[in-house]
Design a protein that fits this description.
With 249 residues, the protein is α/β, with parallel strands linked by helices. It is built from 9 helices and 11 strands. The longest helix has 14 residues.
């Protein structure tokens, strides 16, 4: 756990039962453990987090989390977004100054990447948020609207996020296309303000929550990585992840 007494950084893992493609996904067994337990165990390896919890709106997930030793927080089922669920869960941590939001369906997330994200945020008090991106290597991914792209300023801050191809290559590429990975770190005061803001025009157009922050003038630092965690969105992906985990162990 972290030793820095000037900041109190918590890691929150939102975990919902409902999924149109994969209901009950958080408790789906993978290599003998529920999916969400694999995520929690990965996050427990981080060195920059002072506390970790699973935030859920389902009693079954809450009970499972407690059974394998995690701290669990019950949240309202009526939140319009993951950020709102996060803001409610943070109330259970009055000392928290920064929050890292880790997706509950990425059992292969790299603990070192979470630590880098937390460190980037606390090292610059002018930052509101931090997130992660990696290079896009295939035309298929570049053209896929479900893969969000991000363009950066020279200082590493996000200029824009889009489902479209950005930057458009009118000439041979100098700036490589980057894929946004959905892990975020927030300053607590910013998160609490953010969820009070009304949805913004670009956010509503692209259906990308992070654009609300940019449209309100917030700085979002983007950490670059070559690590792309394999997420679990379908039972078939769960089988793929299981084979990876069994080979690791």
């Amino acid at each position: 756990m972290a030793a820095d007494t000037s900041h109190h950084i918590i890691g929150l893992i939102p975990s919902r039962w409902g999924s149109s493609r994969f209901p009950g996904k958080p408790l789906h067994p993978i290599a003998g453990k529920p999916l969400v337990q694999h995520v929690w165990e990965r996050v427990c390896r981080c060195s920059r987090l002072d506390a970790i919890a699973i935030a859920t709106d389902d009693q079954r997930i809450f009970d499972a989390a407690v059974s394998f030793g995690a701290r669990a927080i019950m949240t309202s089922p009526d939140h319009p977004s993951g950020s709102d669920r996060l803001a409610e869960a943070v109330r259970s941590f009055p000392a928290a100054t920064h929050i890292v939001n880790i997706q509950g369906d990425e059992p292969l997330i790299a603990p070192a990447l979470i630590d880098r994200l937390a460190e980037a945020l606390v090292s610059d008090e002018a930052l509101s948020m931090a997130t992660v991106a990696c290079p896009i290597s295939t035309r298929e991914d570049l053209d896929n609207p479900n893969i969000v792209k991000v363009a950066l300023a020279r200082n590493g801050d996000a200029l824009y996020f889009s489902r479209s191809v950005i930057p458009y290559a009118r000439h041979p590429r100098v700036a490589p296309p980057l894929r946004h990975l959905g892990i975020y770190a927030y300053r607590r005061d910013f998160l609490e303000n953010y969820v009070r803001w009304a949805p913004t025009p670009l956010e509503q157009t692209e259906s990308l929550e992070q654009l609300r922050a940019l449209e309100n003038g917030a700085r979002i630092r983007v950490i670059l990585t070559d690590h792309v965690s394999v997420g679990v969105d379908t039972p078939e992906q769960a089988e793929q992840v299981e084979q990876i985990l069994l080979n690791i162990h």
